Amino acid sequence: MHSSAPAPAPAPTPAPPPHAALPDGLPAADVLEELRALRGSDAPTRGGRTFAYVYDAGIEGLDELAAAAYSAYATVNGLDMTVFPSVARLENDLIRTASSLLGAPGTQGTFTSGGTESIMLAVKTARDHARAERGVRQPELVLPSTAHAAFHKAAAYLGVEPVVVPVDGHTCKADAAAMAAAVTERTALVVASAPSYAHGVIDPVADIAGAAAERGVLCHVDACIGGWLLPYLRRAGREVPPFGMTVPGVTSLSVDLHKYGYADKGASVVLYRDAELRRHQYFAHAGWPGYPVVNPTVQGTKAAGLLAQAWAVLRHVGEDGYTELARQVADASDRLLAGLRAIQDVRVLGEPEAGLVAFTLAGPGTTAGGGDLSLLLHLADEMRLRGWYLQPQLSFEGMPPNLHLTLTPATVGQVDALLGDLAEALTAARALPPVQADPGLVELAAGLDASALGPDEVSAVLAYAGLDGGTGAAAALPQRMAPVLVLLDALPQALKERLLSEFVGSVFRI
């Protein structure tokens, strides 16, 4: 019987070379040049023409100091202060400074990556405190409708139910009596703003905190914007109502150093009435085979460079420096408000108290809330074409759509130019045809279940809105945003949120 060896298997086809994740190494100069080119399409962060997102002290050399301080600590891991003890020294210095400015005896705190993390930690602390001290298992968060969206984000992340209380339609401030009436046995935290972002007005902190204290409930003051400005406005001779940790009933407070502290982003502080309350913020875990973990913040590993640059900026500017910067902001605000009120059909919302200004327009297209949406958005577009960025804010529960401005010392020399261009841009905006959302689409949208929409349906609505730029859509935004924002303003909240999420997802897609 004859047998033969099996035929050898055919040689496998060579796999194609893997796609290179990175190019061959480039010279450092080429890499930096590419970054500089990418920045060319961004709004300017210096020069005082971007009236949102940017806080510019206008101090020569401050950016270089922050960068050098960051560089000195760029390789230091803020996770473990027993390995890097200077991290504890820098943080304690910052908390001591913040406590001296805003605190009361016994105040303790933590350095964080920004206002959202500070707020997240304050809500987490209140939730865990209510659970441990009062047995609350289904916690609620009582907040005015003008409270920052970060509180809703914290509530969503942490399983806390937000209870939203309407504000006074004229002053745009929280209604202290209505806030007090909303407190229940389930309330873990009550919130006040100093000031609110949308309108730059300070809530009646003392009344809100006092009512919360009577019920044994914690009260957080969101001073992310005003915490480093209001005390120095007071020092510069302006009237500022009490809002800090010395107010009876205030148990925590957040303040961003990267806003009116003029540090680079992200740098913030959250303060608590005492170390015992702050204890509920911490996370510790020893039930695994690795190193024992203790995290004061949401982050574990974190860049000590952000801490170092904030420490350096505060020490460089100093007490008198911040007082002078606050005076400049107040003077610029006075001139801007007077100029806005002198323009026909312009209405400033509330009585701005802390560097933030919002105004709306009257006209033939006036909404129920009191603002001509089409004209307002045309104005925003016209200002952007002239090199200014004013932040559009849409209508909300009877509050009118408006344009929002953030004033900093860098705007001091720009207010007159801004007002001149604003008057010219308003004339141009009035000459443009009104834009409005398709009534049929708005009616259809009112009956849609946003959560049930499929990808194709969402893409179709985005395309109709002019937000279908495809992959990397940021570069494909329409030059004029008025038609897009008019449609968004008309959509139900749930659908609006779904479309915005999908749009951002399309921008961050490879």
TrEMBL record:
PANTHER family associated with the record: PTHR42735, SPHINGOSINE-1-PHOSPHATE LYASE 1
Keyword Glycoprotein carried by entry: no
Domain of life: Bacteria
Protein name: Pyridoxal phosphate-dependent decarboxylase family protein
UniProt feature, compositional bias: Pro residues: 7-20
Keywords attached to this entry: Lyase, Pyridoxal phosphate
Recorded family membership: Belongs to the group II decarboxylase family. Sphingosine-1-phosphate lyase subfamily.
Pfam families: Pyridoxal_deC
Species in which this protein is naturally found: Streptomyces ovatisporus
Disordered: region residues: 1-25
InterPro entries hit by this protein: GrpII_AminoAcid_Decarb, PyrdxlP-dep_de-COase, PyrdxlP-dep_Trfase, PyrdxlP-dep_Trfase_major, PyrdxlP-dep_Trfase_small
Cofactor: pyridoxal 5'-phosphate
